[in-house]
Amino acid sequence: MITVNDLVANYDFTKLSAETLNRTIENAYSCDLLSWVMAKGKHNTAWITVQTHNNILAVAALLDFACVIIPEGIKVDTEIIEKANEQEIILLSTPLDAYHIFKILYEAGIE
After folding, report:
1. Which domain holds residue 16?
2. How many domains does the chain have?
3. What CATH number did the domain enclosing 61 receive?
4. Whole-prediction pTM value?
5. What is the pLDDT of residues 36-64, one digit of tens each?
6. What are the tens digits of pLDDT across the range 69-94?
7. What are 2's strand-pairing partners?
8. Above pLDDT 90, what percent of the chain?
9. Can you spell out the DSSP letters for 45-69?
10. Using alpha carbons only, how large is the chain's radius of gyration in Å?
11. Residue 96 — φ and ψ, nearest 5°?
């Protein structure tokens, strides 16, 4: 089992939004087609996406994701970070690619 805080404290992840990081990650998913994510996503998912617009926040809130991870050092506009804070959605950034993110999560017991 791993929490969002574990990612930030022990790996190369940076918190962009949210005050509390104690959400438990139960599964992981990577996809950039929002309708597909809405159909396949689950509660407490760590969602990896290169998308950085408002609609990712809507999907994350709808499905109550543990966090949204923006890989490969992709920049996120301040406006999106502020809206994520308002909605209490955890956004993380990392220079890692999706493969290495999944590797960390798999080694932590997420399948």
Report:
1. 2-107
2. 1
3. 3.40.1390.20
4. 0.96
5. 999 999 999 999 999 999 999 999 999 99
6. 999 999 999 999 999 999 999 999 99
7. 25
8. 95
9. EEEE-S--SHHHHHHHHHHT-SEEE
10. 12
11. -70, 150
